[in-house]
Specification:
By secondary structure, this protein is α/β, with parallel strands linked by helices. Helices cover 32% and strands 20% of the residues. It contains 13 helices and 14 strands.
């Protein structure tokens, strides 16, 4: 097979995992609660691929009689519910020890960080990013002190108005934090959160940048790259994998820009992997607990699916999936521990129910077999089950 395209619909969970209660996520179901909150939501293309035919998805409603794709429910074997863990597992790498989460970072770390960057900071507590820039933005803009905060994810986030702290300086500050957050303070991601003021409101820009812990071992991306094939990363994929195993990458401004750039990659003549993350579902709607906005974003993506499907040649497959849940009607503002969908389409892919899979890594294993690269340490390929 010439090429595999994996598109991560960031945070589109399809129901709580058996251990969700221990994460505070009993009853979470991102897809179901979006559908309940947005009656009449039209996502015909996702449904035609079998989204609502997946076992346990959407509360058993809206099943399609003749799905066009193969479909599966994927459970997560790694502990946690964060972006890095989910993406690493998709790519065939188990996270055995979950990344540490905190309500705040230790005072001695903050003091040393401030000394390293030559400035005092504001914040240092768990918060919603859109809320904290409103709470602390005026003081930040008056004093020039960057805003630092965390969440239920293993993250150290640094927010700044780019009129006060220029973007490159914000990135430099984040790189310093990344160097420091190792060992006992190991943290999954340091995230730059730039914002601007428009019409009196603080608006986060698309210049976000993630500085992640490097993968602890080889992933699907490494296996594809080492054969000389292309690994084309769209959106925050390059940040999530710390650029490991990637040959080309492009930044995206939003979901539709991500679709546009995925289509542009599909139009090119190369063999290998296209790996796309569509982050708006998570960052703009899941975290902000906006089910109507999430539903509208799903419909917008659904309307573009025929373009993506038509762009596939005979020897390509496309896999749609997610990396965790982010139920927009759940309490708080953080990810939820959920199973995720896998929808597979290609001119040589037959519609088949692949059942409930034990790990997200079955995606990576399937892609590895399709591209004839070395097998991964985690996951079971279902390629033979889906090909005509």
């Amino acid at each position: 097979m010439k090429r595999v395209t994996i598109i991560v619909m960031d945070s589109l969970g399809i129901g709580a995992l058996p251990d969700a209660e221990s994460y505070g996520d009993a009853g979470a179901d991102t897809l179901l609660h979006i559908l309940e909150a947005t009656p009449g939501l039209a996502i015909p293309n996702l449904m035609s691929l079998g989204l609502c035919n997946i076992r346990g998805a959407a509360g058993g409603r809206s099943r399609t009689k003749s799905p066009r794709g193969a479909y599966a429910r994927l459970n997560e074997v790694s502990p946690g519910k964060d972006t890095i863990t989910g993406h690493l597992e998709i790519a065939g790498l188990l996270t055995e020890i979950p990344f540490k989460t905190r309500e705040r970072f230790p005072d001695d770390f903050i003091r040393e960080f401030e000394q390293r960057i030559g400035a005092e900071t504001l914040g240092n507590y768990a918060a919603s990013g859109t809320v904290i820039i409103e709470e602390l933005g005026p003081e930040h803009e008056r004093t020039g002190r960057p805003i630092v905060y965390t969440s239920a994810d293993s993250v150290f986030q640094i927010a700044a108005n780019t009129a006060i702290i220029p973007l490159e300086r914000l990135y430099e500050i984040c790189r310093i934090a990344r160097e420091m957050l190792i060992g006992e303070l190991s943290t999954g991601r340091v995230i730059a959160r730039p914002y601007v003021i428009e019409n009196g409101k603080r608006i986060r820009t698309s210049d976000r940048k993630d500085y992640a812990v490097p993968p602890s071992g080889p992933t699907l991306l490494d296996r594809v790259k080492e054969t000389g094939m292309t690994v084309f990363a769209v959106g925050k994929i390059s940040d999530i994998f710390n650029a490991q195993g990637i040959t080309e990458s492009v930044h995206t401004d939003n979901n539709m820009d991500g679709v546009d750039k995925t289509l542009a990659a599909l139009m090119r003549d190369f063999s290998g992997l296209i790996f796309t993350n569509l982050v708006d579902f998570d960052s703009k709607f899941g975290h902000r607990r906006d089910p109507a906005g999430y539903g509208a974003a799903l419909a917008e993506f659904d309307a573009r699916l025929p373009e993506l499907m038509s762009a596939l040649s005979d020897d390509e497959i496309m896999i749609l999936c997610a990396d965790h849940g982010n139920d927009p009607v759940h309490s708080g503002w953080d990810h939820t521990r959920e199973a995720v969908p896998a929808l597979l389409y290609g001119k040589n892919v037959k519609p088949v129910d692949l059942g409930v899979r034990n790990t997200f890594a079955d995606i990576g294993a399937t892609a590895a077999e399709a591209l004839s690269v070395a097998p991964l340490t985690l996951g079971t390929s279902f390629l033979a089950e889906i090909l005509k």
